[in-house]
Design brief:
Largest interface: A-B, 39 and 41 residues
Helix content of chain A: 25-40%
CATH topology of the largest domain in chain A: FAD/NAD(P)-binding domain
Domain Dihydroorotate dehydrogenase electron transfer subunit iron-sulphur cluster binding (chain B): 212-249
Oligomer: heterodimer
Radius of gyration of chain A: 23 Å
Bound molecules: flavin-adenine dinucleotide, iron/sulfur cluster, FE2/S2 (inorganic) cluster, magnesium ion
Shape of chain A: globular
Keywords (chain B): 2Fe-2S, FAD, Flavoprotein, Iron, Iron-sulfur, Metal-binding
Binding site for [2Fe-2S] cluster (chain B): 222, 225, 237
Distance between the termini of chain A: 54 Å
Order of helices and strands of chain B: EEHEEEHEEHEHEEHEHEEEHEHH
Number of domains of chain A: 3
Protein name (chain B): Sulfide/dihydroorotate dehydrogenase-like FAD/NAD-binding protein
Strand order of the largest sheet of chain B: 10-9-8-7-11-12-15
InterPro entries (chain B): Cyt_c3_hydrogenase_gsu (IPR012165), Dihydroorotate_DH_Fe-S-bd (IPR019480), FNR_nucleotide-bd (IPR039261), PyrK_electron_transfer (IPR050353), Riboflavin_synthase-like_b-brl (IPR017938)
Strand content of chain B: 25-35%
Amino acid sequence: MDEKSAKKEKIPRQPMPEQKPEVRKRNFEEVPLGYDEETAIREAQRCLQCKSPACVQGCPVSVDIPGFIKLIREREFTKAIRHIWERNSLPAVCGRVCPQEIQCEGMCILGKKDRPVAIGNLERFVADREREHGTGDLPPKQHPTGKRVAVVGSGPSGLTVAGDLILKGHDVTIFEAFHKPGGVLVYGIPEFRLPKEIVYSEVNFLERLGVRLECNVVVGRTVSLDELFEEGYDAIYIGVGAGLPRFLNIPGENLIGVYSANEYLTRANLMKAYLFPKYDTPIVRGRNVAVFGAGNVAMDAARTAMRLGAERVRIVYRRSRDEMPARAAEIHHAEEEGIEFHLLTAPKRFIGNESGRVTGVECLRMELGKPDESGRRRPVPVEGSEFELDCDLAVIAVGAAANPLLTQSTEGLEINERGYIVADPETGKTTKRGVWAGGDIVTGQATVILAMGAGRKASDSIHKYLTWGW
Amino acid sequence: MFEILKRHEMADGTVVMNEISAPKIAAKARPGQFVILKANETGERIPLTMADTDPKKGTITVIYQVVGKSTALFRGMQVGEKYQDVIGPLGQPTHLEKLGKVACVGGGTGIAVLHPITRALKEIGNYVYAVIGARTKDLLILEDKMKAASHELEVCTDDGTYGHHGFVTDVLRDLLERENIKLVVGIGPVPMMKFLCKLTAEYGVKTLVSLNPIMVDGTGMCGCCRVTVGGKTRFACVDGPEFDGHAVDFDELAKRLDAYKEEERMAYEKFMKERQAG
Ligand SMILES: Cc1cc2nc3c(=O)[nH]c(=O)nc-3n(C[C@H](O)[C@H](O)[C@H](O)COP(=O)(O)OP(=O)(O)OC[C@H]3O[C@@H](n4cnc5c(N)ncnc54)[C@H](O)[C@@H]3O)c2cc1C
Ligand SMILES: Cc1cc2nc3c(=O)[nH]c(=O)nc-3n(C[C@H](O)[C@H](O)[C@H](O)COP(=O)(O)OP(=O)(O)OC[C@H]3O[C@@H](n4cnc5c(N)ncnc54)[C@H](O)[C@@H]3O)c2cc1C
Ligand code: SF4
Ligand code: SF4
Ligand code: FES
Ligand SMILES: [Mg+2]
């Protein structure tokens, strides 16, 4: 026993093979290449199989982490994926995009002395293996209940609800405003971080289970919630995300070449503007790019700009490095790809030429003052520190807000002062009978796994309602 | 879904009408609203106003001018073919009110956008003067329909080949002098709307314009369609497309419409070359 655990500690965290920075910064292929079986097993052997595993507490949906890792060790890959599915229906996505360092891996006991178990990489491994070599067998479905559920929005939250309820025997239709399903997973997160094929295979899986998908339906415009009830739906889940771009509200923001991150990433990802003119949607290809913000969205925009041929890409952020909200891996990847970070810097106004194109941005230096309500030290401008930064493309990635399109057109649905839908955190129930909501449209822009967690709670509650009443 | 049921060309083949099967949209659409169409997998999302709808038949009608790659691609689509995606109805419907005498002024393909609004204004009891114009006689569209949709119609051509020789704004000035016009609806190319608004401002007559900025989603999630109205940024796809013409920054709109001029030219040339080759 002693000998075995001594051996265990000697295994270092297995590095993830990746495309080299100088190569990948000019292509859209995925950056991390994935573990092979032997590497995965070796990494799985590092896990101490804790009796009361801290890692599980760090996971918002409580994936049985030691459980599935043990199955990897035993080469029971199919069993491992089934085990994860019990808690998390999109492991190929979560393994890639969860902020593991503050969730599961952040709590892993190994992290105290050494580096934590690469839980995300292992989750990704079993999910990818299932997609590529699995049996493709469908899980068993319960008897049809005759109840009909409408899911509005096909992001991770809506997909989770659809998957849960179809298995419980309900008839499920997803309505999606865009021409393709997946929400942020397809229009926001770039191909090099989450290949779209993965999202479509998850959606295809749901369709094979019997979920109907209707794209090009803008609920609130094409059809209202009340009309869906009239059409015979018994329950409705709203998972429309936080799809409203925030701007900086500074002069010059409507110059050509100043984009919201939503627009920039939608053009690049969903519309495949990086393949223009094979695809018809154009995009400004900046040589000298400034991205405002330092979250995942900002990193995605900066790295996309680099791949679209930029010579120089700068992240401009008004706080300091410690406050950058992006996943650690993305910041690291961005740095490796040559993206520069201008911290404690805030934009004041955009500068343009006579044809209305952006040519630069005037910035101010900031210093850290007293902590604000979020506990972070508030950046305050240094007087007289104005300076100009040249750019021919600017992307604003300072957050998203609630899109009012659906809520404005729906009676009886309470929203809070910021426009988000009010829903019970335990059940997802809204103030409108028969309507549930979850994900970013309730919490504001958060994470994939939280949106899925909210979907799981709501689907339990919807199932109860369809069985027992409101 | 989204099958082309009828198709014909107008204005010397530079303008095309499509009647498209889209029952859900037809059931909901109101004058002033638009749809977004995407022809195929590699296509871009193109906004077009609904020139007509038939909820019973489940159809919508669009009338578009061929100006670049995507509209040239649309032009090649025949009866029986399908758009891959049609999304709508989008935008705010026209705010319709009975005011008395109103003038509906359209230029170029703007007339297609103007027609359903004109008809609706007449239906609710306004006395409607319509003024429509084109560069030359052959490019004029929807004369008969506009005649039926209004009480009095005046036609203008820039080159004098038909109707009044001159601009729609000349005719409108006479109307404003002569009649107690309560509202002007002006829809056409940006320069036309800009001058029209200048004119109606002189007379202090409320003016609605329909703006056509570049769009992507059409649901308020990208901000591509932002326009400055009364010093504030608005999203034309959800707050518009109609706005108080006297508050619109037309110069900014005109510049933003040129954002992709180079790319558009390249895409169009490539498309025409490929079409000739294949
Ligand atoms: C660029 C970017 C990068 C991100 N990176 C990460 C990351 O690395 N890790 C992480 O955990 N999280 C990340 N996030 C956040 C995460 O993607 C979101 O929290 C999550 O997608 C929210 O899921 P959702 O299902 O609530 O909504 P969304 O994913 O936003 O999906 C909502 C869907 O509803 C549709 N919809 C909207 N309105 C209507 C309507 N009226 N009718 C019909 N359909 C409608 C939308 O088109 C969309 O498809 C990122 C977000 C962005 C934008
Ligand atoms: C709300 C709205 C309603 C419209 N209704 C009509 C209509 O009823 N009939 C009609 O003929 N035209 C209409 N248009 C304009 C029409 O969308 C453009 O002519 C069309 O997109 C041109 O595409 P293209 O690829 O053929 O030409 P391109 O060569 O790509 O573009 C020509 C010009 O069209 C504009 N344009 C390009 N892409 C877009 C886009 N994605 N969205 C909007 N404008 C764009 C630009 O100013 C560009 O310079 C409308 C536009 C809007 C916003
Ligand atoms: S779902 Fe996310 S947080 Fe949970 S175990 Fe997987 S990677 Fe970690
Ligand atoms: S905390 Fe770390 S070592 Fe313990 S079970 Fe979880 S992953 Fe394994
Ligand atoms: S077109 Fe995207 S917000 Fe209007
Ligand atoms: Mg085009």
